[in-house]
Design brief:
- The complex is a heterodimer of chains A (354) and B (263).
- Chain A is 24% helix and 35% strand.
- Chain A has 354 residues and is α+β, with helices and mostly antiparallel strands.
- In chain A, the strands form 4 sheets. Chain A has a 6-stranded mixed β-sheet, with helices on both faces. In chain A, strands 13-12-11-14-20 form a 5-stranded antiparallel β-sheet. In chain A, strands 15-19-16-17-18 form a 5-stranded antiparallel β-sheet, with no helix packed on it.
- The longest helix of chain A has 18 residues.
- Chain A is elongated, with a radius of gyration of 25 Å.
- Chain B has a single domain, classed as MetI-like (MetI-like fold, Orthogonal Bundle), CATH 1.10.3720.10.
- Chain B is built from 12 helices and no strands.
- Chain B is 79% helix and 0% strand.
- The chains are: A alpha+beta (354), B mainly alpha (263).
- Chains A and B meet through strand 6, helix 2 and helix 4 of A and helix 7 and helix 8 of B.
- Bound molecules: adenosine-5'-triphosphate (ATP) and magnesium ion (MG).
- Magnesium ion binds next to helix 1 of chain A.
Chain lengths: 354, 263
């Protein structure tokens, strides 16, 4: 039985459907990210799970019990906010112990728990500091410890790292993941940073305009995106408008350059379609059995491990990420080159990109 | 050159503020002919009327502060949290006492509460109650401003939600999270209220309560040196309270800094 079940969750603000028909099932200890652009309803979904926002419709079941009408302070769900939201009048230890104190736990038990959590977040000597004496990263660790102190059933994090600098962000996200695994904490993590979502999560929920586009492992989301939105939102994507020449054989053409897909697709001959292709699937030169495209290099960017070429092929711009090798000759801007990619690298998008 | 002018202005300012004070102190010490003494202070402090009127004023001031806080803090907090669209209305209401002269207010109160169904003036506690109500109205603009400013300085909504997710009920949130983080704001609001109530004359006089205001007026009419001594005493009290606020604010770590937001 799933630990957290969300069925047909819906939230309407006036005429706006902030979240529509949100369905998700999580098992205990799973780490799921909600990923989507600004305003797509991630925070709203999270706030409904936390109990801060009353759903317009739908059910949230926690451990088999419907909690959608239970007030936030009795849901036993921990929350970490982007702005940390530590209580400024309390020191770190009191912040962490707050949840236990108002539950009426004995002082000794609270102290022990605070001690344990301070060690967990690697701030063992900061118990007496006040929030304003800590850096942003330290404050967010304390906020995490405070949420974990009550041993919540579910931990929710709403863009916890977006106020931090890049280096701290990468360090802290790994730490969050380690702690989450150690405690086997069922966790929902909201972010608009796809790299964050991909690197942390067991599964990713991609959202767009209040609707779930796809739920899947990072691998599945990246390599087998179900919708054009997911495909373009996660990672870089090349899209080519093509004309179908033989759908049953997986054949089409881009202007007069023939292309072959590994899988057959249902489309009438001479109809138009869109195929998608990741930049890292492209290689320089000719190769037997691969698709080929010829275009002009518009520019190249040296990114260290990879070299990103921007090509113009007919009227379309393509990105090609080539692995850096020392003996490689980088094509110059304006040079005409041929690139190749295997038939299994590209797929037909079922709906047009917007 | 600039530097010199700055000093001129500072000295002018000091003279402007302190000369009357020094003159009053000087005068208050001259109750005995030909030498300085604390005679006037002695007389005032030993006057049973001073003690009774001052005590009454302090009691009423404290009641006013407590009831104002109980009324205003939850109201403004709720407006910040859930009804931001109501805030302009609250602000308007909070400023009404400024345009309502105390005389008008007191006559209105007398008309309403002298006869049935609310004949409250028959008893001393009834009159005191009405007085507290009237003072709450007079102090409303100051109290509201202080609380509103205090709430603006903290991230009310997120702090509330953080407390809620940790299991806190509304009274716990108000008492342990909101009130402590408003400490400075509440103290300054309370102090302003205290100052207003202690010095208030019109309402007390018309309601026939012999508080500190009417006492001071009486003294000014009949005596020369004692009112000066009393003014100095009021100054001393006022300044010690201000000092106390400063000290409490300084002592409370975190309350002077707003650490709620990202930095
Ligand atoms: N209280 C509210 N009243 C009216 N509309 C709201 C309210 N809260 C959110 N919305 C709207 O609902 C939509 C979703 O908002 P939400 O905050 O969930 O987005 P988000 O995905 O968290 O975005 P971001 O990445 O910017 O945080 C937005 O269009 C927003 O304007
Ligand atoms: Mg958000």
């Amino acid at each position: 039985m799933p630990f957290l079940e969300i069925e047909h969750l819906h939230k309407q603000f006036g005429t706006l459907n902030a979240v529509a028909d949100f369905n998700l099932q999580m098992h205990k200890g799973e780490f799921v990210s909600l990923l989507g652009s600004s305003g797509c309803g991630k925070t709203t979904a999270l706030r409904m799970i936390a109990g801060f926002e009353a759903p317009t419709g739908g059910i949230i079941r926690l451990n088999g019990r419907d909690v959608s009408r239970v007030p936030a302070n009795r849901r036993h769900i921990g929350m970490v906010f982007q702005s940390y939201a530590l209580f400024p009048n309390m020191n770190v230890a009191d912040n962490i112990g707050f949840g236990l104190k108002i539950k009426g736990q004995p002082a000794a038990a609270i102290q022990a728990k605070v001690h344990e959590l301070l060690a967990l977040i690697q701030l063992p000597d900061k118990g007496r500091s006040y929030p304003y004496q800590l850096s942003g990263g330290q404050q967010q660790r304390v906020a995490l410890a405070r949420a974990l102190a009550i041993e919540p059933q579910v931990l929710l994090l709403d863009e916890p790292l977006s106020a931090l600098d890049a280096k701290t962000r990468v360090e802290l996200r790994q730490e969050i993941r380690d702690i989450q695994k150690k405690l086997n904490m069922t966790t929902i993590y909201v972010t608009h940073d796809q790299e964050e979502a991909m690197s942390l999560s067991d599964r990713v929920v991609v959202m767009n305009k209040g609707v779930i586009e796809q739920i899947g492992t990072p691998f599945a989301i990246y390599n087998y995106p179900k919708t054009a939105f997911t495909a373009s939102f996660v990672g870089q994507l090349n899209v080519l408008p093509v004309t179908v020449t033989d759908g049953a054989a997986g054949e089409c053409r881009f202007y007069d350059q023939p292309l072959k897909l590994k899988e057959a697709f249902a489309a009438a001959n001479q109809s138009t379609a869109t195929i998608a292709l990741r930049p890292e699937e492209l290689r320089l030169g000719q190769q037997d059995g691969h698709n080929h495209l010829t275009g002009i290099v518009e520019n190249n960017t040296f990114l260290g491990a990879i070299i990103r070429l921007r090509l113009r092929v007919e009227q379309t711009t393509l990105l090609a990420d080539l692995f850096n090798e020392r003996q490689m000759v980088i094509p110059r801007d304006g040079e005409t080159i041929t690139i190749n990619f295997p038939p299994h690298a590209c797929w037909i998008l079922d709906n047009q990109l917007n | 050159m600039k530097f010199k002018w700055a000093w001129v202005w500072i000295i002018l300012g000091i003279v402007y503020f302190f000369l009357p004070l020094v003159a009053t102190i000087n005068f208050s010490l001259k109750a005995e002919r030909g030498r300085y003494s604390f005679r006037a202070y002695q007389i005032v402090l030993q006057d049973p009327q001073f003690i009774s009127s001052f005590t009454l004023s302090i009691q009423i001031a404290l009641l006013t502060i407590v009831f104002s806080l109980l009324l205003i803090v939850p109201t403004v907090y709720w407006a910040h949290l859930r009804l931001p669209q109501v805030r302009p209305i609250l602000e308007f209401i909070a400023f009404l006492p400024f345009v309502l002269p105390a005389v008008v207010l007191v006559f209105g109160l007398i008309r309403i509460y002298s006869g049935p169904p609310f004949a409250l003036f028959n008893r001393a506690w009834g009159t005191n109650l009405i007085m507290v109500g009237a003072y709450m109205a007079l102090a409303l603009p100051y109290m509201y401003r202080s609380v509103d400013t205090g709430l603006r300085a903290i991230d009310v909504r997120t702090l509330t939600e953080a407390a809620q997710s940790l299991g806190a009920s509304w009274p716990v949130i108000l008492w342990r999270v909101i009130f402590p983080n408003l400490r400075t704001a509440l103290l300054s609001g309370a102090f302003l209220t205290f100052a207003i109530v202690i010095g208030e004359y019109t309402i007390a006089a018309f309601l026939g309560r012999f508080t500190f205001g009417p006492y001071l007026a009486l003294l000014v009419r009949n005596r020369a040196y004692e009112p000066a001594a009393l003014s100095i005493l009021s100054f001393a009290i006022t300044w010690s309270i201000m000092g106390l606020i400063q000290w409490l604010t300084y002592r409370a770590p975190g309350s002077t800094q707003v650490a709620a937001g990202p930095r």
